[in-house]
């Protein structure tokens, strides 16, 4: 069994459940973040907003922020749905851990409970895993390398769709 890192991500109403005594230390208007410090523990946090289309998600992250690999583990294994959301959203901006995220979701689906299937569907949606968009840099690459990168993301999207279809069947009580 994998263990998610201790709780250090939150969104929405769950932000209120985290340290109430945080003191603002600075603003970073270049990326819409505000930094805080817990005067008792010295822990540092930052808050921000992920915006995509018409939707936005307010979040709070304990520093140091998780690595892409930790985001993958948190997205799949944390018992906190809001923490999974906050971990899933930035993963889509890092192209390299997307394959690892799909691997982890496929492992989770083996003998998954209804909650496991729900988490699988959530993470696929939040991390935009069904997108076939090549998320790697294309400038300076040959057409063959760009095509290879595209095929990588196409494979991830196809795997994600298969998992979504399986989750839907399982939720309706149909095996397979």
Features:
176 residues; alpha+beta; 5-stranded antiparallel sheet; 5 helices; 43% helix; globular
Would you kindly provide a written description of the structure presented here, covering whatever features stand out?
The radius of gyration is 18 Å and the shape is globular. The chain is α+β, with helices and mostly antiparallel strands and 176 residues long. Helices cover 43% and strands 18% of the residues. The two termini are 24 Å apart. Residues 1-5 have low confidence and may be disordered.
Q: Mind sketching the topology for me?
A:
Layout (H helix, E strand, L loop, with lengths): L8 E3 L11 E6 L4 E5 L6 E9 L2 E8 L5 H10 L3 H11 L5 H13 L4 H13 L16 H29 L5
Antiparallel strand pairs: 1-5, 2-3, 3-4, 4-5
Helix pairs in contact: 1-2, 1-3, 2-4, 3-4, 3-5, 4-5
Summarize the structure.
The chain is 43% helix and 18% strand. With 176 residues, it is α+β, with helices and mostly antiparallel strands. Helix 1 (68-77) packs antiparallel against helix 2 (81-91) and helix 1 runs parallel beside helix 3.
């Amino acid at each position: 069994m994998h263990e998610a890192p201790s709780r250090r991500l939150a969104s929405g109403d769950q932000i209120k459940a985290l340290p109430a005594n945080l003191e603002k230390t600075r603003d970073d208007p270049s990326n819409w973040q505000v930094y805080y410090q817990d005067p008792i523990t010295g822990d540092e946090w930052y808050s921000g907003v992920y915006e995509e289309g018409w939707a936005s998600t307010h979040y709070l992250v304990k520093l140091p922020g998780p690595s892409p690999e930790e985001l993958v583990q948190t997205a799949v294994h944390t018992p906190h749905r809001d923490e999974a959301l906050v971990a899933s959203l930035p993963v889509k901006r890092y192209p390299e851990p997307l394959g690892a995220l799909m691997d982890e979701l496929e492992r989770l689906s083996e003998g998954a409970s209804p909650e496991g299937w729900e988490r699988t569907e959530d993470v696929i949606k939040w991390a935009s895993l069904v997108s076939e968009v090549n998320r790697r840099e294309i400038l300076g690459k040959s057409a063959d390398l760009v095509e290879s990168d595209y095929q990588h993301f196409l494979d991830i999207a196809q795997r994600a769709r298969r998992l979504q279809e399986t989750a839907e069947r399982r939720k309706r009580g149909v095996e397979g």
